[in-house]
Amino acid sequence: MKIKSTLLGLSALLLAGMVQAQDGWNWPADSAEEAKARELNAAYTDYMKSDQFIEATKPLNWLLVNVPELNESLYINGVSVYKGAADATADEAQKRVYQDSVMAIYDKREQIYDNAPKWIENKAYFGYGFYKGTKEKLGDVVADFERAMELNGELSLVDLYAAYFDAVYRHNAYNKAYEPEEVLAIYDKIQVDLDKMAAEGKDVSRPKSTTETILVAMKLIDCDFIENTMGPKLAADPTNETLANQIFKYSVQYKCFSSDAFLTALELIDSKNPTYSTSQVRVMRYMQAKDYEKALPVVQKALELAENDTQRGEMQMELAKIYGNMGRKSDARNAAKEAASLNEELVKDAYTLVAQLYMNSFNECRGGQSRAKDYSIYIAAYNAYQRAGDSKGMASARSRFPSKEELFTEGLQVGSSINTGCWIGETVTLATRD
Q1: pTM for the full model?
Q2: What are the structural domains, with CATH classification, of the chain?
Q3: Which InterPro entries does UniProt cross-reference here (predicted)?
């Protein structure tokens, strides 16, 4: 998860609030105390300007303890001082003391000035940097990010969403803090915020990619989870569109198209806000289940939603299959031919289907009076296979043609015309199998 370099860049922005002077100074009434406060205030600011942050902590600490309401600049600059001191020291124990002091300064600032919306995002950022590897602190880090979003509506810097979700990931890994559904809800909320920012013209590609990588690394979602955890919840609350959208999205992402949960979610989504794509997938599921009665109205709706001839051709082809399986052979042929006329890439499949309809109609169409007429349906099938470019199909159909002897017996000749009759109703040129 490549968020370290990104967050380093944020540090400069978040530390840009060093204050040299502020209105509202509350100097001590005692002249000696005032003189000392002025001296130490000047001392720590001089150290700070010279990047001598460790040295600056001593006079600053006196001010924070003895004149905590002197001026808000103590807390604004205090973050910079203690963060700088933490970076400057090589002693890990002392580093943690300075880092804890940064957090304490934010807490004290809230007690006195009650203006958390101005700085809570900064506190969350620093807390993440300090404590992302500290099991017992991660809950506080996550809470600060969430408070920032609660107070301000969103995080102002898009890359902080990656830090927030990484903190969630770590908190869950260390402390088992969430149910899988809770993590997914957090992830989805992040995506909503990022999508909103993208609509405002901000580049959210990096946090989008990072949060998705983190989610995959958490290994929360698989087809079993979607079917057995999310599915029953949708079954218990079948009008929950938010849950249906989650199931649909994750089913697509993790290729869990065969689950009952996916179909249930798809049915709700497609019923409420149908699109060509949702209707198309819904048709495919019904076709796989051989539920042609359900598939028929959905494919008809998809035809209305289709935006071009390619899509219309695809749905006409599905309609042909549905009609064929329902025994509506004439309708199936019409739909197949319409599909071929709309999309030339479907010619092979369309005319193969027509040929198969003919091949399977012998018992239905046999009149028993003329073998030439009865077997002429195979000539019609041959012609359809020929349109499809199916040589194997052509050979199979030809093997069922009438023989020369059968034509001779009926006083017919090769090359003459005959109508197949029955639902096929095609006039074909007589040919023989031998």
Answers
A1: 0.65
A2: 4-193 (1.25.40.10)
A3: TPR-like_helical_dom_sf
